């Protein structure tokens, strides 16, 4: 069962902010929102995760709505190297809870 | 921090042979490691979860006798594809969890297996 819904693909101009949406309307109170990305023929790269507060790190910002039913990953200044498939995943943060990958959003940064 | 390596990065083997893939957490101790498989143009599919010193837990439809997993230490897990066939050709990716005080999974770079 898909717990998240993401657009299949998006384009963004180089240097602009890339905003990737994710819907997770059935998220449970103890589930976190995780974002990973996968560049072609590589393993997924962890980007960021959050529970209910907005989060920021050196790679991106994560904005989670107050009702937690959706979130947005923001890459503030997209570069060509940000072209990848971005996965939004909800997961509990205890035990060996697994990551279930959906189809993600294929983000293409355009020069 | 949180670096995971895999070896080999690419392997080609003949049908019927066995192939071993190693997954190492380089700068943290991984209490749990996961093995995924990814076919072309598809998403990652979890194959199994392994905890150090115990038997792996396999996902439904994954043959445990064909995909042998050993997690003998907190920094090393191995996946052996036994009697490989062309349909086992895929991108195998491991992840490790348990370091740095979080439940975040960190992934290796993947191993491309081609069975002739």
Summarize the model shown.
Chain A is mainly β and 111 residues long. Chain A has strands spanning 9-13, 18-23, 31-38, 45-50, 55-56, 61-64, 70-75, 84-92, 105-110.
Overview features:
heterodimer, A: 111 residues, mainly beta, five-stranded mixed β-sheet, four-stranded antiparallel β-sheet, B: 116 residues, seven-stranded mixed β-sheet, 0% helix
Helix content of chain A: under 10%
Order of helices and strands of chain B: EEEEEEEEEEE
Structural class of chain A, by secondary structure, is: mainly beta
pLDDT < 50 stretches of chain A: none
In DSSP terms (H or I, runs of 4 or more residues), the helix count of chain A works out at: 0
- Percent helix of chain B, as a range, is under 10%
Strand proportion of chain A: over 45%
Q: Mind telling me the C-alpha Rg of chain A?
A: 13 Å
Number of strands of chain A: 9
Task: State Rg of chain B.
Answer: 13 Å
Average residue pLDDT of chain A: 93
Q: What form of chain B results from the Cα inertia axes?
A: globular
N-to-C CA distance of chain A: 36 Å
Strand content of chain B: over 45%
Listing every helix as H and every strand as E from the N terminus to the C terminus, the arrangement of chain A reads EEEEEEEEE
Main β-sheet of chain A: number of strands, strand sense, barrel status?
5 strands, mixed
Major β-sheet strand ordering of chain A: 1-9-8-3-4
Q: Which pair of protein chains has the largest interface, and what are the residue counts? A: A-B, 23 and 27 residues
Give the number of DSSP strands of chain B: 11
